[in-house]
Amino acid sequence: MAEPNDGAPTSLDAILGGRLRLRQPLSGHRVGADAVLLAAAAGAPARRLVDVGAGVGAVGLALIQRWPEAAGDLVEIDPALARLARENAALNGLSDRARVVVADALDARGRRAAGLADGAADLVVANPPHFAPGAVRASPDADRARAHVARSLPREASPLEAWVVACLALLAPGGRFVMIHRPEALPAILPALAPRLGDLALRPVRPRADAAAIRLIIGGIKGSKAPLRILPGLALHEPSGAFAPLAEAIHRGEAFL
What we know:
This protein is an alpha/beta fold. The protein is 27% helix and 28% strand.
């Protein structure tokens, strides 16, 4: 156990079968299945990527590590998490290709001032907060609350639409956007994405093959006119409770969606 500069205790953990080591806070939001699934669903290799809301850097670093030609920006609003993301880039030998940017991605002027150029990324990945303000009781832990509940915005756009607009502003024409969210958010997701992306692909993630989806992985191409597709679902577990073979291979870093 160690402490970052702000004094909060951290642990050093490994994901993807030990391929990626991450220092992360012991309390609050911790890297889990959502990050692993989002990294697995990122698609073909990209040369320039942006991980919006990167936290300690799990998704962005996993992709940069997987693709030797890739470089990217890990965008995080919390300076303490950004310090850990920077430490994790160094820990995994990726500092020369991973830049950690402390910025509010939803603030267009602020992100440009931080050096994030609009229209420059081949791939943008995001795991936005899954709940609107007031929809659930927020955790007393500020880090966990920020990861799970979107903050109120002083404008008409919904928090989810604001995330989508910010992410797509960073994306080049023909670039790919991928995010993971809760299935009950689909009525808000489609109106936010459909006017801006084509070739939309939705993949349900279920705890078991016979269960309702607990996550949706959504991807699309900026400027494409191709129609929406519903992809085969991913079942995480067998009836016995053991990992299903594909899900286990994904968590080991040996398979992708």
